[in-house]
Design goal:
Structural class: mainly alpha
Number of strands: 0
Shape: elongated
Largest sheet: none
Radius of gyration: 16 Å
Length: 137
């Protein structure tokens, strides 16, 4: 048990939290632009209503989750710090993404693109491990 706790302590938590926070900052900018587009352009509002209707809405939420997971890996790759990504780091990044997602949902209530549903959570997990496939050592 002590070895497990020591391995958790040795993970690059600060870098992973920064990457997750930057990911959700980019998503927040996309949210603001989407809300602005909905309020300013009636045609854009109609498109969003069609896209988020029940059969297609679940796929859109899943796709946004995949995009968030892949974006977090991409931001980790271009970050100047030398983070060695491996499977424990990917799981730690997933945990950071979930915690910051719940914080994000509590700070920005009118969320359109993200939700805390199982579909979005699975999308984040699949996007994270799909983009992080080279780091599965």
């Amino acid at each position: 048990m002590n070895n497990f706790i020591q391995r958790l302590k040795n993970l690059p938590w600060l870098s992973l939290v920064q990457s997750a926070a930057l990911t959700y900052l980019i998503v927040a900018i996309a949210e603001v632009l989407t809300l602005w587009g909905i309020t300013q352009f009636p045609a854009f509002k109609q498109i969003m209503v069609i896209l988020f209707s029940p059969p297609l809405g679940m796929l859109i939420l899943f796709g946004v989750g995949v995009g968030v997971g892949a974006l977090s890996i991409y931001l980790n790759e271009i970050q100047p710090s030398k983070v060695f990504l491996n499977v424990p780091c990917l799981w730690a990044l997933f945990l950071c993404l979930l915690v910051i997602l719940f914080l994000y949902k509590s700070i920005f209530p009118p969320v359109i693109l993200l939700s805390t549903s199982q579909i979005t959570t699975m999308g984040i997990l699949i996007g994270l491990f799909w983009k992080g496939r080279p780091y599965w050592r």
